[in-house]
Write a sequence for this structure.
């Protein structure tokens, strides 16, 4: 009897739990979701959005998605800013109706003059979103009228069978009041930074035309003209980063004529800067040309793959008006310290020491002074100082090493000379000289001379005592026999 009673109680309790879970918990969640959707101004899925019409009164903007790419179709044919369009759709989807209806549908149907009271007879903004054919619903056009007296809310009305007047927060309206400039593609130049393999930078310097050519080789930049020297990777990266993120300030001529190009300083040969990017293995070209100064350092410019003449701001212009020295590697002695197997240091034509890596590859021993233990940390520090030595100015360049004027800078008698042995037959020679109060440095295999900091004279010339432990002191052998000499007749007693 008790067993049957307990069983009945268990079944009833389980049923109550199921009711609470499905009706109160899950049902509550469903009801809350339905209530939230009911507050939405418009309900749709992002992937369903196909065509967007925005009527701001003066201009009607039509944006259409094709193959997952947004394009502007009216008032002109151009690309759309995908991120800006996505933000617009998100603002539209997140807009919520506030409170009860200000005017119900019946009142409006009976007296259409009511619309004028709320600024909806001539709405400030109308938005219509068309969904894909697979969508199950058709969305009404949204009409936005005046703000409420407190200016905290904006009156809004749907077209269709239920034209009641409701309110949304005024900032929601502000997020939707977008025009052509807000939603069109405003990138200065389209490219993927990782795919750029070369760059040509042509500019006018006084009456002279200059051309800088560079290539990216295995993630490192190298200048090829007017000098074949290492490039500054950070400088090239900054140019590409700034240019890739740059936004057009304004559009001046949508479909420029030959006369417009002339006025803008963008006719062939008139441009102040002409940047060419080489893309990927096929080296396809992208061109950006800068014309006349617009205002406050901004310039008129054109991407030759598109029609409009536009304005770019001064920060981008600064990046493009680079000189050769701005793009050269300022660490020309940039070696990997761990790759150096041997060091020879000569100061004032005298060899101070020679050192070689030990068999472990991490320590050092002094081949010139085998009786002294090397200070491994100090020799590694010397290599780091070489690698970090920065150029303060580029003072001399030549077509080749032999034609470089070394005498005028004191390299006929250098203050110090470092031979860095990297392997069999591979050695880098670094020389530092002082002439008329300026310190210069050069690599013996590079036809250039650089002015460097005065500290290079000491940082790159440690003494033997700097790189070697103190010599070990000889100690008496405690086990050695001691010779004692006794005087004749001395018995010791």
């Amino acid at each position: 009897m008790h067993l049957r009673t307990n069983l009945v109680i268990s079944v009833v309790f389980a049923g109550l739990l199921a009711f609470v879970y499905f009706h109160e918990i899950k049902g509550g969640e469903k009801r809350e979701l339905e209530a939230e959707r009911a507050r939405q101004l418009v309900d749709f899925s992002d992937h369903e959005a196909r065509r967007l019409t925005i009527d701001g009164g003066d201009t009607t903007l039509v944006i259409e998605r094709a193959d997952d790419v947004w394009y502007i179709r009216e008032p002109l044919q151009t690309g759309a800013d995908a991120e800006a369009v996505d933000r617009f759709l998100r603002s539209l989807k997140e807009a919520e109706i506030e409170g009860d209806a200000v005017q119900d549908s019946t009142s409006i149907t009976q007296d259409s003059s009511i619309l004028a009271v709320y600024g909806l007879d001539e709405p400030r903004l109308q938005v219509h979103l068309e969904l894909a054919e697979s969508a199950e619903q058709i969305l009404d056009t949204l009409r936005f009228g005046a703000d409420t007296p407190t200016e905290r809310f904006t009156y809004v009305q749907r077209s269709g069978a239920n034209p009641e007047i409701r309110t949304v927060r005024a900032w929601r309206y502000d997020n939707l009041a977008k025009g052509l400039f807000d939603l069109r593609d405003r990138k200065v130049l389209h490219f993927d930074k990782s795919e750029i393999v070369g760059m040509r930078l042509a500019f006018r310097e006084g009456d002279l035309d200059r051309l800088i050519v560079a290539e990216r080789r295995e993630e490192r930049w190298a200048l090829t003209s007017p000098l074949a020297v290492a490039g500054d990777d950070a400088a090239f990266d900054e140019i590409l980063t700034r240019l890739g993120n740059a936004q057009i300030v304004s559009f001046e001529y949508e479909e420029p004529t030959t006369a417009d190009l002339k006025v803008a300083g963008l006719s062939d040969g008139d441009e102040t800067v002409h940047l060419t990017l080489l893309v990927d293995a096929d080296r396809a070209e992208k061109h950006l040309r800068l014309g006349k100064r617009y205002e406050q350092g901004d310039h008129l410019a054109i991407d030759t793959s598109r029609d409009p003449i536009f304005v770019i701001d001064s920060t981008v212009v600064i990046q493009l008006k680079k000189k050769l020295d701005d793009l050269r590697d300022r660490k020309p002695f940039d070696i990997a310290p761990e790759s150096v197997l041997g060091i020879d240091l000569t100061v004032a034509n005298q060899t101070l020491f020679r050192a070689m890596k030990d068999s472990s590859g991490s320590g050092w021993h002094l081949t010139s002074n085998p009786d002294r233990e090397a200070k491994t940390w100090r020799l590694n520090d010397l290599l780091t100082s070489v690698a970090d030595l920065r150029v303060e100015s580029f003072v001399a360049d030549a077509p080749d090493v032999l034609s470089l004027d070394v005498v005028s800078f004191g390299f006929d008698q250098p203050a110090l000379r470092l031979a860095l042995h990297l392997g069999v037959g591979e050695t880098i020679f670094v020389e530092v000289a002082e002439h008329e109060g300026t310190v210069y440095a050069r690599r013996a295999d590079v036809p250039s001379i650089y002015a460097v900091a005065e500290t290079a004279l000491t940082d790159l010339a440690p003494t033997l005592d700097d790189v070697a432990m103190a010599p070990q002191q000889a100690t008496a052998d405690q086990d050695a026999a001691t010779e004692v000499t006794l005087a004749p007749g001395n018995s010791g007693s």
